[in-house]
Amino acid sequence: MKFIHLSDLHLGKRLNEYSLIEDQEFILREIYSIISEEEPDLVVIAGDIYDKAVPSAEAVHLFDRFLTHISERTGQVFVISGNHDSAERIAFGSHIMDKSGIHMSPVFDGIIEPVVLNDEYGEFCVYMLPFIKPVTVRRFFADKTVESYTDAVNAAIDAMNVDYSKRNIIIAHQFVTGALKCDSEEISVGGMDNVDSSAFDGFDYVALGHIHSPQNVGSERIRYCGTPLKYSFSEEKQQKSVTVVEIREKGWLNVREVPVSPKRDMRKIRGSFEYVCSKECSGTGDVNDYLHVVLTDEEEIPEVLGKLRSVYPNIMSIEYDNQRTRSDHGSLGAAEAEKKLPIELFEEFYRFSNGGDMSEKQHELIQSLIEKIWEDGE
């Protein structure tokens, strides 16, 4: 069985007020060309189809065209909802589309039945696990303790009663412990949404979405394919790709990447205003790329954005790096705060405000409130 693993299309996304719909349409055409060339048996899309729970009309039309085209080139398509999607909207019409080989994940109700396919090696089972949180799962498993995200995934998978003697893959949209993050992802402070990779033990392949960098987690059996486009400047050095997976007999797995190239790259340029505006600098890449400009001038340049956009029309952001900005350590505190758990930040605030530590009872109360806010809030 050969399949294409995609995720995190984020159709309709805007970045620094720039609409990326034209770039997304371009990259989907390139992905369609890869699918046409590879001729897979199925395509899986592991969540975050859209960038918002209520996507724009043009984002919906773009996905509709893409889904129609790829379904004509492959027998089966599997799509799950991610944390940016509305599970109900993704599930709409799923029973009708199942008959055409397009499988949209239903709203999680505690029961996940596999789609069973067959090839020369026997049965091939595909499990679709949409993005879930402990609060989502807990109501269906009153007899289980479901406090963490690992508990939630374990409970959902236990209920599947998977026959691990067969070949099984699972499509999921969670943050698996050990994955490397980018700035464009929504991950909780302190890693409260981590899922231990052991939750997926036994599956022949775990097609993950949620993390934007293409990477394996522990082994090539558990993989994030990453986004097809760069969605933050922290991804500047990444080569985006499509993941192609082949599974033959039980235990045989081959995973490879097919690179994709965007209509406009996302990159940084650095130097003095004079250098950045020079042909020497502008000739190092496409001037239409999305840019973050770092200026090293000691004095701020009047109307700098307008002047730079006469050379680079798609500048997204500008910052200065000079003696004044380097002496300003205001961002250091924020950077340190990002590394701390929410309860640790509250403890510091309480200590600063009250001149002493919280009691054990207060600590337990605040911790329970933090967990409830994280579970209930998007």
Strand order of the largest sheet: 6-5-4-1-15-16
Stretches with pLDDT under 50, minimum 5 residues: none
Number of helices: 13
What is the CATH superfamily label of the largest domain?
Answer: Metallo-dependent phosphatases
Helix content estimate:
25-40%
Overall mean pLDDT score? 89
Q: Total strand count, please?
A: 19
Give a quick precis of the structure.
The protein has 378 residues and is an alpha/beta fold. The protein has 3 domains: 2-259, Purple Acid Phosphatase, chain A, domain 2, CATH 3.60.21; 266-327, no CATH class; 334-376, no CATH class. The chain is built from 13 helices and 19 strands.
List the keywords:
378 residues; alpha/beta; Purple Acid Phosphatase, chain A, domain 2; 3 domains; six-stranded mixed β-sheet
Your description of this structure?
By secondary structure, the protein is an alpha/beta fold. The chain has 3 domains: 2-259, Metallo-dependent phosphatases (Purple Acid Phosphatase, chain A, domain 2, 4-Layer Sandwich), CATH 3.60.21; 266-327, no CATH class; 334-376, no CATH class. It has helices at 21-38, 57-73, 87-91, 94-98, 134-138, 149-158, 273-276, 279-282, 304-309, 323-327, 330-338, 342-354, 360-376, and strands at 2-6, 14-15, 18-19, 42-46, 76-80, 102-104, 115-119, 122-129, 167-173, 175-176, 194-195, 205-209, 215-217, 219-224, 241-247, 253-259, 266-271, 290-295, 315-320. The protein has a 6-stranded mixed sheet with strand order 6-5-4-1-15-16. The two termini are 36 Å apart. The mean pLDDT is 89.
